[in-house]
Amino acid sequence: MIGYLEGVIKYTTKGKVILFANGIGFTVFLPGNLNFLEKSHASLYIHTHLREDNLSLFGFASAQDLELFELLISVSGVGPKIGLAIFTATSAENILKAIESSNLSFFNSISGVGKKTAQKIILDLKSKVSKGDINFKNLEGSSELVESLLSLGFQKQEITPIIADMDTSLPLGAQVKNALNLLRK
Question: 37: exposed, middle or buried (C-beta count within 10 Å: 0-12, 13-18, 19+)?
Fold first, then answer.
């Protein structure tokens, strides 16, 4: 298994690079918020994903990001593409915060993650990333906040970064008001 690559970027496009290391060009998929310029030097922590018909490499800037990605894809129903979408939407810190606070709306706001998958992520990973108890009120809640903001014309990629900062114990109206204030910044 490939766990780390260091080399020169030969080609880059959104979400993918070709990293030239030791005479071989490796295609590496990256979170959308991790960008490199062609001919720049890069060091990436790698997750090697092997299926019967495919070998894919997923790269991360730090070992901690790689570890969290591997935790996410260990959840039934979460594959590398959804794991990468979660990392593209926000930082590892916000992902951990959403798991610790049982923030169902945060995961629902990410394309490809439904309510049941979001619940599985929180239930499976809560004990692995924090010592707190699961907040079942948040976990059972719907994504009404996300749906409200979408109906107001906001895009999922605008909403996702602020969901982790929301206090889900507030009434829906107060949550929408706070979200609008955060979105205006």
Answer: exposed
